Amino acid sequence: MKVLNFINGEWKESSSKQFAPVINPATGDAIGEVTVSIEADVDAAVKAAKAAQKKWALEPAPKRAEVLYKVGYLLKERKEQLARMLTMEMGKVIEEARGEVQEGIDMAFYMAGEGRRLFGDTTPSELKDKFAMSVRAPVGVVGIITPWNFPIAIATWKSFPAIVAGNAVVWKPALETPFMAQELAKIFEEAGLPKGVFNVVNGDGPTTGNALVEHPDVRVISFTGSNEVGRKIAEKCGRSLKKVSLEMGGKNAVIVMDDADLSLAVEGIVWSAFGTSGQRCTACSRIIAHENIKKELENRLLEAMRTLTIGNGLDENVKVGPVINEKALQKIDQYVQIGKEEGAKLLTGGYILQEGEYNKGYYYAPTLFTDVTPNMRIAREEIFGPVASIIPVKSLEEAIEVNNSVDYGLSSSIFTRDVNKAFTAMRDIDTGIVYVNAGTTGAEIHLPFGGTKGTGNGHRDSGVAALDVFTEWKSIYIDFSGKLQRAQIDIDE
Ligand code: NAD
Fold it and tell me: For residue 198, what is the enclosing H or E element?
């Protein structure tokens, strides 16, 4: 498959004439190629978006929402086909790929509903015969930059609220996963979205992504990706006072108290730590275990990990797929070496799988360390692979302190049967998402999604909160007194 840009309703090759290969991480095979864009392509897309946005914003919001309903139905109709394609370009197992497409479906219907809400406020004026209200106004052209690990879901979290609110979008997907971008653009086209409201420009970060960030007509950048890149983008946006929403990395923990249902905790940990081969921003990479159950938990986790089938995600029996590429494999392996040097005890895994069917793809053995201390690098830095570390603690207070001690603040979980401990943790844990008796993954699209501290900059994807990124508040005062009434001055008349 040859993937092109989608600009102003047309499929176009970049004038760079350069193409990058699309590699199936499960087999190492090239399964397509994608056009690599330069500044001129970004500029063309932004121009198209700017022109289309004015008209689009004048459509009544319920009319705009009708397109999203159609998008939702098309995603639903094509769920299986999209999921298979997603697994081929990104590697996650087919069941999770179906779940990811489902997120897009859910978001389409949820945000379509916003077309008949987009609530503002009416509020009394302090003056007689005066009316006051605030409404949400679109920002204009929205630039979206996304990572490869959720190639369709994240784009739907961002583009659907942006579009229903009356903005136009230019999306730069990750170069590794362009198929989903192409399929989403086709769906928007079939759903009847006017030309130019949704555009896709493929390319790398430093050239294509940067051109979007620097473009003066892009009024908001919504970014999901690594902390390192997010910081650079925020600095650039700061200089031009561009609105920027950042969703970045995590170092998420599951706390297991000594009263927990250990079977449930093990299920939750295995799903959160090794699902998507640990390449979710919400993946559990720290297990903060009460010392009384630490040994028992280790044994049970090892037993559960032995049952994990590793392989090509298209096989329904496979539970852990490949990681994205060779670079990721090497980074994960380096962290494992660091962990060993730091004195962590390796219980299982810790190596690249190379024999037989693993020879061509990028597979890492699910890995578990124990006796990890909170200051070790493997307990603080995002590894983004199937590697989890057990950190023993003596109390709930210590568990929460360790949980909160990292630079990131995305997701946390606690397994306990004690309601007091659960509520204490819910209050004192400082991450944007908290689970009780479930793993660190499993966000639903109608709640705000995002994190504190190094994970974000105070914005949220998903839920009504997403609309805050893509709208400006406009306050409106209507005076029907027929005379000049001065606020704060003519209040006693
Ligand atoms: P990345 O930061 O390397 O790339 C993300 C996107 O930014 C890509 O499209 C890339 O091309 C682009 N980019 C890179 N350099 C750029 C630049 N200088 N200017 C503009 N754009 C640039 O991240 P990745 O490796 O694709 O994804 C993994 C990361 O994403 C992990 O850190 C993970 O935790 C994070 N993530 C966070 C969330 C969340 O919601 N918090 C969700 C998924 C993934």
Answer: strand 198-200
Q: State what percent of residues in the chain have pLDDT above 90.
A: 99
- Which atom of ligand 1 sits closest to the CA of residue 213? 20
User: Rounded to two decimals, what is the model's pTM?
Assistant: 0.98
Contact present, 222 and 145 (Cβ < 8 Å) = yes
pLDDT digits (tens, 9 = 90+) for 15-73: 999 999 999 999 999 999 999 999 999 999 999 999 999 999 999 999 999 999 999 99
CA of 85 to the centre of ligand 1 (A): 21
Q: Please name the residues in contact with 77: beta carbons below 8 A apart, sequence gap of 6 or more.
A: none
Given CA atoms 177, 203, 462, 288 in this order, what sign does their dihedral have?
positive
C-alpha angle 89/8/15, rounded to 5°? 70
Measured CA to CA in angstroms, residue 160 lies from 192, 382, 474 at distances of 14, 29, 21
Q: Which of 100, 114, 237, 281 is catalytic?
A: 281
Query: What is the C-alpha separation between 221 and 115, in angstroms, rounded?
Result: 22
> Comparing C-alpha atoms, which of 228, 33, 64, 48 is closest to residue 159?
64
Closest CA to 263 of 232, 289, 301, 206: 301
Which residues have C-beta atoms less than 6 Å from ligand 1? 145-150, 172, 174-175, 204-206, 209-210, 213, 224-226, 229, 232-233, 247-250, 281, 382, 384, 410, 451, 455
Q: How far does residue 51's CA lie from ligand 1's centre (Å)?
A: 28
- Containing H/E element for 336? helix 326-342
State the burial class of residue 320 (Cβ atoms within 10 Å of its Cβ: 0-12, 13-18, 19+). buried
| Residue 90: Cβ-neighbour burial (10 angstroms; 0-12, 13-18, 19+) | buried
Helix or strand holding residue 367 (H, E): strand 367-370
CA angle 84, 86, 92 (to 5 degrees): 95
247 catalytic? Reply is: yes
DSSP string, 455-475: TBSS--BSTTHHHHHHEEEEE
